[in-house]
Amino acid sequence: MLTPLPSPAVHMLRMGLVILCAVWCTWAAPSWAQNSPPELEVHPQTMQVGNQHLQRNGAGIRYKAIFKVYSAALYLEQPATSLEAIGQLTGSKRMAVSMLRTINAAELGKLFAHGMEDNMNKQQFSKLIPGVLRMSEVFNRHKELKAGDTFTLDWIPGQGMQISVNGAPEPAQFTEPAFYQAMLGIWLGPKPADTQLKQALLAGKAE
Fold first, then answer.
1. Which domain covers residue 171, as residue numbers?
2. What are the two backbone dihedrals, phi and then psi, of residue 123, each rounded to the nearest 5 degrees?
3. Which of 7, 98, 115, 159 is the most exposed place for a label (fewest CB within 10 A)?
4. Looking at the domain assignment, is residue 31 inside a domain?
């Protein structure tokens, strides 16, 4: 006949099992579950742009110092790990941004213009200045982007780039493929706005 364990021993045994279970669960949990912040849940794994079904290539968070500014996700027809590879894709594309704090929209437009310029030579950038001005006007009209606001930059073959703010398409037209590629360069170029975000958007394999 087994002798029952005294109460303190039972308690210690139970605590040991709980700790063991917690350690095992942490070790066994998939890496994506540990590395996926809740702010990225607004970006689904698939997206319909134009008439094309796109997959999420990567997603991450833009930090300014220690502050989270926005989350972003890149959608493509097939996986790509560099800005150059994305430029060779002929289908639809989307950069989706969801704000995590309130910022001045006009200032964001200026930062985007500087980001484009930083990732191009002066001759290339000078050819895109009319489009840069139209892009700046879009953000100037909105004055402020608040936490929870969203905007998308879509490339639709045969139409060009479409900017939408909170789901509403903007009337400005951007038909040059080079302009959309320059916009992506803000995040994915040699001098990205945030290196860790670049790596996240390119499936963690930035080149």
1. 37-201
2. -65, -40
3. 7
4. no
- The answer, yes or no, to whether residue 17 has pLDDT greater than 50, is no
Q: How many domains does the chain have?
A: 1
DSSP the chain: -PPPPPHHHHHHHHHHHHHHHHHHHHHHS-HHHHH--GGGGGS-SEEEETTEEEEEEEEEEEEETTEEEEEEEEEESS--SSHHHHHT--S-EEEEEEESS-EEHHHHHHHHHHHHHHTS-HHHHHHTHHHHHHHHHHHHHH-EE-TT-EEEEEEETTTEEEEEETTEEPS--B--HHHHHHHHHHHHSSS-S-HHHHHHHTTT---
**CATH classification at residue 102:** 3.50.70.10
Using CB atoms within 10 Å of the CB of residue 62, give its burial: 0 to 12 exposed, 13 to 18 middle, 19+ buried: buried
| 21 occurs within a structural domain | no
- Mean predicted lDDT score pLDDT of the chain: 85
- 143-168 tens-digit pLDDT: 899 999 999 999 999 999 999 999 99
* Within a domain: 15: no
The pLDDT tens digits of the residues spanning 174-193 come to: 999 999 999 999 999 999 99
**What is the residue whose two structure tokens read 């890496």?**
31
pLDDT per residue over 127-148, tens digit each? 999 999 999 999 999 989 999 9
Beta bridge partners of 156: 160
